Fold this protein.
Amino acid sequence: MEQLIGNLLRVGVLVAAIVVLVGGVLYLIQHGGGAPAYHVFQGEPAALRSLHAIVLGAATLQSRWVIQLGLILLIATPVARVAFSLVAFAVQRDKMYVVVTAIVLGVLVYSLFFGRV
Amino acid sequence: MTVLTLTLLVAVGSFAAGLLGALTGLGGGMVIVPLLTIVFGVDIHYAIGASLVSVIATSSGAAAAYVKEGFTNVRVGMLLEVATTIGALVGAYLAGILSTTIIAVVFGLVLLYSAYLSLRPRAEHVVGGPPNRIALFLRLDSTYPSAGGWQPYEVQGVPLGFGLMGVAGVLSGLLGIGSGAVKVLAMDQAMRLPFKVSTTTSNFMIGVTAAASAGVYLHRGYIDPGLAMPVMLGVLAGALVGARLLTGAKPRVLRLIFSAVIVFLAIEMLYNGLTGKI
């Protein structure tokens, strides 16, 4: 199980990095000559904020959306790890830690899907 | 400056941060925000978003290597993650309402504190103690591999450790850093865990803590793909190269240099924050 969790983390980070890299190359080809505007905070457009819109945009190979998809895969990696731990505690019939892990997973899922605090 | 030039410069800076962070064991995440805001003039909210993403990448990569060696105490990690993830949500909330001046000043103070901790040799502490009622109830006591076989230890100070972890979570969510220093402090000093156990368990927790605030940052529009891309790839590549170069002991000279860089960035953050330039 521990071995499995270790591999899960490694594969998650690797896949996320590859997706971000592919999106990054596309991004520099499409927008490399433009002027950056990070010194003033405007916030990303709504289409780069929600999971649903990001997946739709990435499906059409729009560079910024592909990068964002890679970043979501990265954020999802520790979430998946916690979900695996939940299963591991359930298999050991460790009720106390099933509850503890479920609380952590709940906070993470809430943040990733709703993200309003 | 074009997007291409900025992207390459940010990638090189992030690579250096990841490399030095891994070589010194101090983590590169905490220099990313000052680097982006002070050197490149990036807004602090975008900088925190990009930094947070890089923290998840390096922590998950490192945790993968440690988890199978048997040092990580998964129960302690999971219990404390309740505190760090809720703290991280509070921190992300505060990042949305506090002024950039306050964020910059808190950041500067945390950097100074981290530099202080890194220059001081890690204080020897008593490992374990008499069996603790709360630790027994939560079944936190465990064993770790040592030269003389599996060594048992008794966990102490659970409520204090839990509270400190909540603070670590708030700082992580507010500043986009891993807060490894505060986490290790809570586990060393309050809970009296053996060094290797606290270090690896902290690494195990950093990615989960960062993920809790990253979701909020994403929905708030703080994570810009064009900026986060070179930061994440640069820090990750630097950390991987650093881990490969590292053959054991953390080089003292590098630690001194990196601490000096942190102190310099701390003063810059405080100055720019107080004069309203961030």
